Amino acid sequence: MNRKQYRFARNLLFRLDAETAHHVSMRNLQWLEKLRLLGPLTALTGKTPAGQPVECMGLTFPNCVGLAAGLDKEGNCIDALGQLGFGHVEIGTITPRPQPGNPQPRLFRIIDREAIINRMGFNNSGIETGAAHVASSHRFRKKGGVIGFNIGKNKVTPNENAVDDYLACLRGAWGVADYITVNLSSPNTPGLRDLQAADETARLLETLKEEQEKLTTASGRRVPIALKVAPDLEPQHIADLSKVFVDGGLDGLIATNTTISRAAVKGCDYATQDGGLSGSPLTSRSTEVIADFHSHLGNQVPIIGVGGIMTAEDAQEKLKAGAKLVQLYTGFIYHGPPLIHEILKATMRSCPSS
Question: Residues with catalytic annotation?
Answer without folding.
Answer: 186
